[in-house]
Amino acid sequence: MVVFVWFVFIVAPFCLLLHELGHSLLARTAGAERVEVFLGIGPSLKIQVNPSFRIHIALWYFLGAMVSYDKREGFSLGDRMAISLGGPLFSLVGAVICWGIYLYAPYPIVSLMMVFNGWLFIINLIPFSIKGKQSDGYLVMKDAACLIKKKRY
């Protein structure tokens, strides 16, 4: 029971935040003028990091996460692919770092973080779309298909 509580209220939200920060960092690198990271649902506490970057931590912070960003002239296909891959790559880096820590400090919370970050990495690269929600892998596949079509004509 204690492991479940740690997982739901600490490990999963932290790993989801790390994943979304990966998307936001790549969006900023691609020139996004506004980036907002949302953790959870419900009324939220807004943390203004700088004028164009904000983090929203909701009352039910353990119920999902997402990032929102925009740029006046839009993003190129390559930028969109990089932004979509940013989250899974941050999850992979998180898993590798946790694995390294676990080798020297084998605490259960570190192993949970390692496994969940690895799971986020793998699941988000699988291309799927459910009720309008598209995985990072689906977005990359869709943009790659558009890029290939453009080059053929």
Characterise the protein shown here.
The chain is an alpha+beta fold and 153 residues long. It contains 4 helices and 4 strands; from the N terminus they run H-E-E-H-H-E-E-H. Helix 1 (2-29) runs antiparallel to helix 2, helix 1 (2-29) packs across helix 3 (108-125) and helix 2 packs antiparallel against helix 4. The termini are far apart.
SSE order and pairing:
Elements: H1 2-29, E1 34-50, E2 53-70, H2 77-104, H3 108-125, E3 129-130, E4 133-134, H4 136-152
Antiparallel strand pairs: 1-2, 3-4
The rounded distance between the terminal residues' Cα atoms is 58 Å
Quickly count the helices. 4
Gyration radius from CA atoms, angstroms: 17 Å
What structural class do you assign from the helix and strand content?
alpha+beta
Quick summary of this structure?
With 153 residues, the chain is an alpha+beta fold. The protein has helices spanning 2-29, 77-104, 108-125, 136-152; strands spanning 34-50, 53-70, 129-130, 133-134.
